[in-house]
Specification:
Blueprint lengths: L1 E5 L3 H11 L8 E5 L5 H12 L5 E5 L2 H6 L4 E4 L3 H13 L3 E4 L8 H14 L3 E2 L8 H7 L4 E10 L9 H4 L9 E7 H7 L5 H9 L6 E7 L6 E9 L3 E8 L1 E2 L2 E5 L1 H14 L5
Parallel strand pairs: 1-2, 1-4, 2-3, 4-5, 5-6, 7-9
Antiparallel strand pairs: 7-10, 8-9, 10-11, 12-13
The structure holds nicotinamide-adenine-dinucleotide (NAD).
The site of nicotinamide-adenine-dinucleotide has 28 residues, from helix 1, helix 4, helix 9 and strand 13.
Length: 274
């Protein structure tokens, strides 16, 4: 596989370590699109940290350079701005993209641009389940007539630092689990963009951004990130609860996210996809 990555942070680094332990995935070439002015440093780091992958390495800073490396598949794990700057160009060139920064879809114009670019290039945008599970069932039940989908996201107070939660509640003084946001998935994504991905994933799989209800909670007793959703449909009532450990490199990122991206890559190459 000729793999392209956009971003080389916590998710990308962990993903490359997991790929090295996954016999089904053999990398022939790895090209990483990083921030301008940092490609020399990035290239050296790739060789030093992931030389065991046994593939060729290149670090680039534009979508055009990434495409010149002829990737079979690109994984975006950089953030909203990188989605805006690079992903439409890659899709228009006909290359599939696993989009990890799913919260980007909460912006109507960007969602329309991404869908149009994929259609123009005949490429697919693959949205991994990320930090949450049960997305297969939720998406499968959509034609059965979902009547309500409610998501609750709970993290330790420190994980909400630097967000509007700081003004909604006294994060440092909390003694018990406290709901500080109730609203739609679209509002949650707009107000908490760095924590928007799970709400966005559930919204896209189920009832959409404007009809998915979201509650965000800070809990001083929480040791990790808990994602829970309940979906009611004509054929089933579904409740899913996942207690994730935060990833060592980024307290806001649940470690299961990286495994879900690895699954997308494995399903591209393994004889059986599941
Ligand atoms: N779908 C999910 O459930 C889920 C879960 C966790 C995180 N995420 C998203 O995944 C993304 C990456 O998470 P992370 O923990 O690896 O973050 P991180 O901050 O550790 O790494 C992001 C990397 O991308 C680079 N970057 C930023 N802007 C860039 C640009 N324009 N071009 C190239 N590189 C750029 C940064 O320099 C950094 O190295 C974030 O957008 C995060 O919101 C999604």
């Amino acid at each position: 596989m000729r793999l392209g990555l956009i971003g080389y942070g916590n998710i990308a680094g962990t993903l490359l370590r997991l790929i090295a332990e996954t016999p089904e995935i053999r990398l022939e070439a790895l090209t990483v699109l990083g921030l301008p002015g940092k490609t020399d440093e990035l290239g050296k780091d790739l060789e030093a940290s992931h030389g065991g992958l046994g593939c060729s390495f290149a670090a680039v800073s534009s979508a055009e350079e990434l495409l010149a490396a002829k990737p079979d598949f690109v994984v975006e794990c950089a953030g909203h701005q990188a989605v805006v700057s690079h992903v439409p160009t890659i899709l228009k060139a006909g290359v599939d993209v696993v989009l990890v920064s799913i919260g980007a879809f909460a912006h109507r114009e960007l969602e329309a641009e991404l869908r149009a670019a994929a259609e123009e290039g005949g490429a697919r945008i693959v949205l991994p389940a990320g930090a949450v599970g049960g997305i297969d069932l939720l998406a499968a039940l959509r034609p059965a007539g979902l009547t309500s989908v409610t998501y609750q996201g709970c993290k330790p107070p420190a994980a909400w630092a630097g967000t509007p939660a700081e003004t909604a509640v006294d994060l440092d003084g909390l003694k018990e689990a406290t709901v500080f946001f109730t609203g739609t998935a679209r509002d949650a994504a707009a107000q908490y963009p760095k924590n928007a991905n799970v709400a966005a994933t559930i919204a896209l799989a189920g009832l959409g951004f404007d009809d998915t209800k979201v509650e965000l909670i800070a809990d001083p007793a929480a040791s990790g990130n808990t994602h829970e959703f309940t979906a009611v449909s004509g054929v089933a009532r579904t409740s899913i609860r996942i207690e994730n450990l935060p990833s060592p490199g980024n307290i806001k990122t649940s470690v299961t996210t990286v495994y879900s991206v690895l699954r997308e890559l494995r399903n591209r190459v393994a004889p059986v996809a599941i």
